[in-house]
Structure formats: C-alpha cells, structure tokens
Design a protein that fits this description.
Layout lengths: L2 E5 L2 E4 L4 E8 L7 E7 L6 E6 L5 E3 L7 E6 L4 E6 L8 E11 L15 E7 L3 E6 L1
Parallel strand pairs: 2-11
Antiparallel strand pairs: 1-3, 3-8, 4-5, 4-9, 5-6, 7-8, 9-10, 9-11
Length: 133
C-alpha cells in the first residue's frame, strides 16, 4: 500500500509563490511515476506536472514556466514549486503515483515523448491553494 501526505498549501496574492510537499511511504513508491494534480471549484481533476523515476519531467501548458516538479527519492518526498500564481491556479492540489501514459506518443532512443503524463493509482488527501487578486 502507498500513502501520501501533502503540505504547503495556503492563500497568496496574485504573482506570489508556494512550495508544496508530498511525503510518501509504501513499497511500490520508488518504482512508478509521480505527479501533481489539482481540482478547482466546479472543475474536474487535472494533472499539471509529472516526473518519472529518472527525473524526466512533463508539464501541462497552463503551468509551463511557472511550476517546477522535483523529488528527493532518498526521502520519498515530492515537491511542486509554484511561482507567479494566478487566480485560475486556485484548487485543491493532490500528489499521486501510478503508470506513465504516452498519450499516443512513442519512446524514441529511451526518451519519453512530449506530453507524457502519469495516470495515478494512488492519491494523497490534498492541500488547498487559494490565489486572490
């Protein structure tokens, strides 16, 4: 069984920054891709940033250049640095882990295609982020 605990959420002004953390435990944790997902008011849950076991990252267009996903594998901690936050970033943020989705792309030369994502099998409880103008 895999368990996650997110922290670091809060309320910030437009243009501000937050750093989310997710501490994981459980035997499969070190063997699958991980990611950050969010669900805003009245919206469906969406993935925003993903990282595989080799440290390769992928982001959705709406957060590229503003969010950075990273991990500390020796301590089973996943991070999401969020800069230049906007009101549309307001959401409950979850960390998750699961299987890589190539989204109709192909692995070439051992490299994942652009736009790959991580389909989660395991979820955390979430941490709330609110951005006000």
């Amino acid at each position: 069984q895999v368990h996650f605990q997110e922290s670091g959420g809060g309320t910030v002004q437009v243009g501000g920054s937050l750093r989310l953390s997710c501490e994981g435990s459980g035997s499969p944790y070190s063997t699958i891709c991980k990611g950050w997902f969010r669900q805003g008011p009245g919206k469906e849950r969406e993935g925003v940033a993903f990282i595989d076991n080799d440290g390769t990252t992928s982001y959705v267009d709406s957060v590229k250049g503003r969010f950075t996903i990273s991990k500390n594998p020796t301590e089973y901690i996943l991070y999401l640095q969020m800069d230049n936050l906007q009101p549309e970033d307001t959401a409950m943020y979850y960390c998750g882990a699961g299987r890589i989705n190539l989204n109709n792309g192909r692995v070439v030369g051992g490299r994942l295609p652009r736009g790959w994502t991580c389909d989660p099998t395991y979820w955390g409880q979430g941490t709330q982020v609110a951005v006000y103008s």
